[in-house]
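job 3f2a | input accepted
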Amino acid sequence: MANSPAVDPGSSRFGRLSGVENGNVFLSRKRMCLNIGFIAAALLLCLAPRAVGQNSPKITGVAPNTGKVNDSVTLTGENLGKDSVSAVYLSDDKDDFKATLVEQGSAKIILKVPQVKSGGYNISIQEGDKILILPVRFTVQG
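job 3f2a | predicted structure (142 res):
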């Protein structure tokens, strides 16, 4: 206790930190507004992808999940209409092969299997200018 400094709340050192006369109250309000702004921006960044993600195309089923070139395949899901999905592809590690769309609605797309080698492919959809490779598989038989 002998080494602790004496605290005098009335000293000029503390007056500078808490006094209204030199504008520190206004600085605190500015900081509070900045903090509220940062919190609002963080919430917007967290919630915006969810709001956008709710209208994103989603494929929930492929029937059949195997087929030959030119076979018809039905994709089922959500938000699959022409305003959301402009193209469907079969994708491997190197290339995206565009399928011909025979029928397209908000919950269903019917496509023809494009001219590709036999093997396993991911179903990909084009949304705007982006091609999204989905974890949905389709096998082309030889």
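job 3f2a | Strands lie at 58-63, 66-67, 72-78, 87-91, 96-98, 100-104, 108-112, 119-127, 130-140.
job 3f2a | closed
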